[in-house]
Specification:
Layout lengths: L1 H4 E2 L2 H11 L4 E6 L6 H12 L3 E7 L1 H8 L8 H9 L6 E5 L5 H7 L3 E5 L10 H6 L3 E5 L7 H16 L7 H15 L3 H13 L1 H12 L8 E6 L6 H14 L4 E5 L15 H9 L3 E5 L9 H15 L3 E5 L5 H8 L3 E6 L6 H12 L2 E4 L7 H13 L6 E4 L8 H13 L3 H33 L2 H11 L5 H12 L1
Parallel strand pairs: 1-4, 2-3, 2-5, 3-4, 5-6, 7-10, 7-11, 8-9, 8-10, 11-12, 12-13
Guanosine-5'-diphosphate binds next to α12.
């Protein structure tokens, strides 16, 4: 039955029509790659216009030439079979050329029909049909459905399923909550596991920040950020400060965003043996971040790690970052005290000042001040700070020998006395919520945008933007109207 409707070329169909004396024929053509409601309705409408509906079907070769090498999805034989199964279709005939003009000349239909907003002038064969008194008709196509847009929808769907899950499962939430509880009870391996999780999984970051924002902020925990050029001595300074904090009965957590940072656990100033017992008491916790291919922002996983250390009960959280990029400034901007470590040769001083670091710094350390030029550098820096309203301290140190570090420690503690740790925590968690939820929102927006672009309306608007008829913000407004 189906094969009765199928003709491999115009000639055999012509012979069939002649033998059956069928003259009231309606002709249409297309690729019909994935059949959808638009095709079915318009073929039914076309059939109403005459006695016998012929569909000219683009061969595989011709579809490739028209739509690109990744089309058709279905072979000509299969496409033909599906069409033949439709009640409205009386014959399917394959053609190899890009246009059906030659086929139309062979078949001489009474009527030629196209779907969609085709103009007669642009349809090959239409003029020929009219030359012997036939008619050309353009039928309306159901808006928004086409094989091309269906295909992109399918692609988008499968792409979405590969996106990292935005929300952590109920079971996952329980596990993370349990780890938080264990870490708070002093379990260091649970704490390590948590930090690994937030480094690699944005959805865990979001869950924990939602959890922590509901907790009472710890008022005894303070965050001290250390930044400065690589090699200035940040790690050496931090190392040396751990001992005095332990001596003062504080628990110290260190987070180094620079994975090359080396820590000995504060053994330089503190007594080596006492330090070992400190770490037995879990008084000191040291962790490098960003070393294992963090997914998403290093600054986000650092910010949440800081808050986890606070929740777990560390009193002083020391964060070492390298460089002065925006993300470092983001991390530091919510620290209770920011220490900038320079060396006398820091020629990039002015550049660092310009980058916004100056506004958040509380204390400048000129380390390696055993080197020539230290005094001159200190004078220059102090001059630079003179006209600033915020009070800043400048201390010269030799971190390797410990010179000046007692003063640094005292100044940090004094600055912390006046800081608003709780407010900073809240600000950090709020920013974290903004950033992490934005990642999911932007992934969703991107998908919507791609879906809009393949609709006739979206395509038209993009074209108008490309040709300068509308601005980018107008394009955006149209998109939001569509998304609503
Ligand atoms: N001469 C001298 N060397 C120092 C001083 N402080 C640190 N160093 C050395 O400088 C190098 C870099 O120090 P490090 O703390 O790793 O720098 P970071 O990259 O800023 O963390 C190390 O070899 C330290 O031993 C100092 O005050 N004087
Ligand atoms: Mg370092």
């Amino acid at each position: 039955m189906i094969d009765d409707k199928f003709f491999s070329d115009g000639k055999s169909l012509r012979q069939f029509l002649d033998s059956k004396k069928i003259s009231n024929t309606v002709f249409t053509n297309g690729c019909f790659d994935i059949l959808h409601i638009g095709h079915v309705s318009y073929l039914e409408e076309a059939k109403e216009l005459g006695e016998f509906l012929i569909v000219g079907l683009n061969s595989d070769q011709s579809v490739k030439a028209l739509k690109g090498s990744d089309r058709p999805f279905n072979s000509e034989r299969n496409r033909a079979k599906v069409l033949c199964a439709l009640e409205s279709v009386d014959a399917v005939v394959i053609f190899n050329e890009e246009t059906p003009e030659k086929l139309v000349q062979e078949l001489r239909p009474q009527m030629m029909v196209k779907g969609g907003d085709y103009k007669k002038e642009t349809v090959a064969g239409a003029e020929f049909v009219e030359s012997y008194g036939g008619k050309f008709i353009s039928l309306s196509f159901i808006d928004g459905v086409s094989t091309t847009s269906l295909a992109s929808k399918l692609v988008n769907r499968s792409f979405l399923s590969f996106l990292p899950n935005n929300e952590i499962s109920k079971e996952g939430q329980k596990k993370v909550n349990k780890l938080l509880e264990q870490a708070r009870a002093g379990c260091i391996s649970s704490l390590s596991r948590l930090l690994t999780l937030v480094e690699s999984q944005p959805e865990v970051r979001l869950h924990i920040s939602n959890f922590l924002i509901k907790q009472k902020p710890s008022l005894k925990s303070f965050v001290v950020g250390f930044t400065g050029p690589p090699g200035a001595g940040k790690s050496t300074v931090i190392n040396a400060l751990i001992g005095p904090w332990c001596d003062a009965g504080r628990r110290v957590g260190v987070l180094a965003v620079d994975p090359s940072s080396h820590f000995t656990g504060g053994a330089i100033l503190g007594d080596r043996i006492r330090m070992q017992s400190h770490s037995d008491n879990q008084r000191v916790f040291i962790r490098s971040l960003g070393s294992r291919g963090a997914l998403g922002g290093i600054s986000e996983s650092t910010a949440i790690s800081v808050e986890i250390l606070k929740y777990v009960g560390f009193d002083r959280i020391l964060v070492e970052t390298v460089g002065v990029g925006q993300s470092e400034i983001d991390i530091l901007s919510f620290s209770d005290c920011v220490v900038v470590v320079f060396v006398p040769e820091s020629g990039d001083l002015i550049q660092m000042m310009k980058s916004g670091l100056n506004e958040i710094a509380d204390l400048f350390v000129i380390n390696k001040s055993d080197r020539p030029g230290a005094e001159l550098f200190k004078n220059r820096l102090e001059e630079h700070l003179l006209d600033e309203t915020k009070k800043r301290f400048v201390v010269s140190t030799v971190a390797e020998s410990g010179k000046g570090l007692g003063e640094v420690w005292n100044l940090i503690e004094e600055i912390l006395l006046h800081s608003k740790s709780g407010q900073n925590s809240l600000a950090r968690l709020t920013l974290l919520g903004q950033e992490t939820s934005f990642q999911s929102v932007s992934a969703t927006l991107h998908q919507r945008w791609k879906q809009w672009m393949v609709t006739p309306e979206g395509g038209k608007k993009l074209h108008s933007y490309q040709t300068g008829e509308i601005s980018l913000s107008e394009l955006t407004d149209f998109f939001f109207q569509y998304s609503n």
